Amino acid sequence: MSQTSAAQGTAKSIALMNRRATIRYQCAPATVGRVFSADDQEFQRAWILDLSLKGIGMQLLRPLEPGQMIAVAIKSNDGKKTFDLSAHVMHCHVNQQGECNVGCELTIPLTPDELDQLL
After folding, report:
1. Is the pLDDT of residue 99 over 80?
2. Residue 11 in 3-state DSSP?
Protein backbone atom coordinates (compact mmCIF):
# COMPACT_ATOMS: atom_id res chain seq x y z
CA MET A 1 0.00 0.00 0.00
CA SER A 2 1.36 3.40 -0.90
CA GLN A 3 1.72 6.24 1.58
CA THR A 4 -0.91 8.21 -0.34
CA SER A 5 -3.46 5.39 -0.01
CA ALA A 6 -2.68 5.00 3.70
CA ALA A 7 -3.09 8.74 4.28
CA GLN A 8 -6.40 8.77 2.42
CA GLY A 9 -7.62 5.81 4.47
CA THR A 10 -6.68 7.59 7.70
CA ALA A 11 -8.44 10.78 6.59
CA LYS A 12 -11.60 8.80 5.78
CA SER A 13 -11.49 7.10 9.19
CA ILE A 14 -11.20 10.44 10.97
CA ALA A 15 -14.06 11.89 8.90
CA LEU A 16 -16.30 8.92 9.76
CA MET A 17 -15.56 9.28 13.49
CA ASN A 18 -16.44 13.00 13.50
CA ARG A 19 -19.85 13.22 11.86
CA ARG A 20 -21.25 15.82 14.21
CA ALA A 21 -23.33 18.53 12.57
CA THR A 22 -22.17 21.25 14.97
CA ILE A 23 -18.94 22.04 16.78
CA ARG A 24 -18.68 20.86 20.39
CA TYR A 25 -17.23 23.21 23.01
CA GLN A 26 -15.64 21.91 26.18
CA CYS A 27 -17.25 23.22 29.35
CA ALA A 28 -15.34 24.65 32.29
CA PRO A 29 -14.17 22.05 34.83
CA ALA A 30 -16.79 21.25 37.48
CA THR A 31 -19.73 22.42 35.34
CA VAL A 32 -22.68 20.75 37.04
CA GLY A 33 -26.17 20.05 35.77
CA ARG A 34 -29.16 18.06 36.93
CA VAL A 35 -30.79 15.36 34.83
CA PHE A 36 -34.44 14.40 35.17
CA SER A 37 -36.12 11.48 33.41
CA ALA A 38 -39.66 10.15 33.42
CA ASP A 39 -38.29 6.80 34.64
CA ASP A 40 -36.63 8.34 37.68
CA GLN A 41 -38.43 10.06 40.54
CA GLU A 42 -35.34 12.03 41.52
CA PHE A 43 -32.74 14.03 39.67
CA GLN A 44 -29.26 12.79 38.94
CA ARG A 45 -26.22 15.05 39.18
CA ALA A 46 -24.35 15.40 35.90
CA TRP A 47 -20.90 16.74 35.09
CA ILE A 48 -21.33 18.63 31.84
CA LEU A 49 -18.38 17.81 29.59
CA ASP A 50 -19.26 19.63 26.40
CA LEU A 51 -22.03 21.51 24.61
CA SER A 52 -22.92 22.36 21.05
CA LEU A 53 -25.88 24.10 19.46
CA LYS A 54 -27.56 20.70 19.05
CA GLY A 55 -26.10 18.44 21.71
CA ILE A 56 -24.68 17.86 25.15
CA GLY A 57 -22.09 15.46 26.57
CA MET A 58 -22.28 14.51 30.25
CA GLN A 59 -20.88 12.16 32.85
CA LEU A 60 -23.36 10.50 35.22
CA LEU A 61 -23.23 7.90 37.98
CA ARG A 62 -26.22 5.90 36.68
CA PRO A 63 -26.78 4.88 33.05
CA LEU A 64 -29.50 6.18 30.75
CA GLU A 65 -31.02 4.23 27.87
CA PRO A 66 -30.47 5.34 24.27
CA GLY A 67 -33.71 6.87 22.98
CA GLN A 68 -34.75 7.95 26.47
CA MET A 69 -36.16 11.48 26.78
CA ILE A 70 -34.58 13.58 29.55
CA ALA A 71 -34.49 17.14 30.85
CA VAL A 72 -31.19 18.76 31.82
CA ALA A 73 -31.01 21.85 34.05
CA ILE A 74 -27.82 23.91 33.72
CA LYS A 75 -27.01 27.32 35.18
CA SER A 76 -25.56 30.05 33.01
CA ASN A 77 -21.88 30.82 33.47
CA ASP A 78 -22.79 33.88 35.58
CA GLY A 79 -25.20 31.81 37.72
CA LYS A 80 -28.13 34.17 37.10
CA LYS A 81 -30.22 31.97 34.80
CA THR A 82 -31.10 28.27 34.68
CA PHE A 83 -31.60 26.64 31.31
CA ASP A 84 -33.98 23.66 31.14
CA LEU A 85 -33.01 21.64 28.09
CA SER A 86 -34.91 18.62 26.77
CA ALA A 87 -32.91 15.97 24.96
CA HIS A 88 -32.88 12.43 23.57
CA VAL A 89 -30.15 10.10 24.81
CA MET A 90 -28.09 9.01 21.80
CA HIS A 91 -25.53 6.82 23.57
CA CYS A 92 -24.37 5.81 27.03
CA HIS A 93 -21.05 4.08 27.71
CA VAL A 94 -19.56 3.08 31.06
CA ASN A 95 -15.94 4.26 31.36
CA GLN A 96 -13.07 2.56 33.23
CA GLN A 97 -13.95 4.39 36.46
CA GLY A 98 -17.54 3.08 36.33
CA GLU A 99 -19.05 6.44 35.39
CA CYS A 100 -21.46 6.77 32.47
CA ASN A 101 -20.51 8.98 29.53
CA VAL A 102 -23.76 10.10 27.93
CA GLY A 103 -24.28 11.92 24.64
CA CYS A 104 -27.61 13.59 23.91
CA GLU A 105 -29.25 15.45 21.06
CA LEU A 106 -31.21 18.52 22.14
CA THR A 107 -34.85 18.55 20.99
CA ILE A 108 -34.66 22.34 20.54
CA PRO A 109 -31.23 23.60 19.45
CA LEU A 110 -29.56 26.34 21.45
CA THR A 111 -29.07 29.75 19.91
CA PRO A 112 -25.48 31.00 19.67
CA ASP A 113 -26.30 33.50 22.46
CA GLU A 114 -27.64 30.74 24.74
CA LEU A 115 -24.56 28.63 24.06
CA ASP A 116 -22.33 31.59 24.99
CA GLN A 117 -24.24 32.00 28.27
CA LEU A 118 -23.62 28.35 29.15
CA LEU A 119 -19.90 28.19 28.31
Report:
1. yes
2. helix
Residue pLDDT, tens place only, 50-64:
999 999 999 999 999
pTM: 0.76
The reported pLDDT for the residue numbered 15 is 42
CATH code of 21-118, in short, is 2.40.10.220
Strand 44-51 with 69-75, pairing: unpaired
Indicate whether 19 pLDDT > 70. no
> Structural domain boundaries of the chain?
21-118
CB neighbourhood size of 45 (10 A): 13
Neighbours of 102 (CB within 10 A): 26
Task: Please check the confidence at residue 5 and state whether its pLDDT lies above 60.
Answer: no
